[in-house]
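Handover notes (outgoing to incoming on-call)

Open items:
1. Probable nitronate monooxygenase: sequence verified, structure written out, both below. Nothing else pending on this one.
2. Nothing else urgent.
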Amino acid sequence: MNQNRVTEILNIKYPVIQASMSWITSAELAAAVSNAGGMGILGPNAGQTTLTIDSVETAERMRHEIRKTKELTDKPFAVQYFIPFPGDTQGFSSRVLQVIREEGIKNLLVLGMSLGNEAEEVRNLKNEGFTIIYRDLNPTVESAMNIEAAGADIIIATGYDEGGGLPVHAIGTMTIVPLIADAIDIPVLAAGGIVDNRGVKASMILGAEGVYIGTRFVASKECPASDISKQDILNAKTTDLVEFKAMPAWRSTPHKLSLELYNMDQNGASSEEINKRMGSIGGIRAGMLEGNLDNGINSVSNAIELIKDINSCKEIIEELMRDVAY
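Probable nitronate monooxygenase structure tokens:
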């Protein structure tokens, strides 16, 4: 069996990690990816359909999803931990982290926003014994070097081709991956616009030792995203997509709300105004989970047009990794 540093560190068969997408991960999705040889991740609101603003309930919901995932797989999986930001007065991150500790989860997908406290957080988490996959929402060579020094095990290099909240710096995946891979010694995962076998092979050539994939797993049978939003992915062309600045910027398929937000941006609306119109949850729950595309957004990568089918996670991973040397 092939092995590289990513598969060895995470104790998985294939260096394919499913992204920690808000609202549209679940125990079923994470377990399916892990059972297929990759690593599934439980992201924010994993397995949920209703919103809560209570931090204790949020943490207990995650506990339930962790336990459900354990029932569905005996393979490694991870949970997302968002480094706290100043507005987290209720302690959402700390309460979720405590549940992660109590449930014996050792693999963390750690998200940072370049607020200046990331290195200390990573150092403390590493001292607790966690295996850390680190993703900076605004990746740079400098941030990757700082996080490597703090003890992270794996760094995600996310290009502007990604779905979800877009990086501040519009650096493409084919640029950011080799820049970061050349600058650090720990393994790098490529992220952004990787949806097929060619994208995986190209990522490896660029210096990555694995891939971090979101949009392709949205178009999977096990993803809790609405069938409407999945079909929307199959129908949309890359040239159809619209971008608009909020907090952060977003890319979406073109429907009523996303077109309104795009037009607001084009007409000079502020990021705060756009974000307020979109809603504090980014429109993801309505658009992607519920399939209400007129009142939500379907946030996708630039490579959307390359996705042709809704497949099982096992089929997706087998296609991604066909004849890939690692």
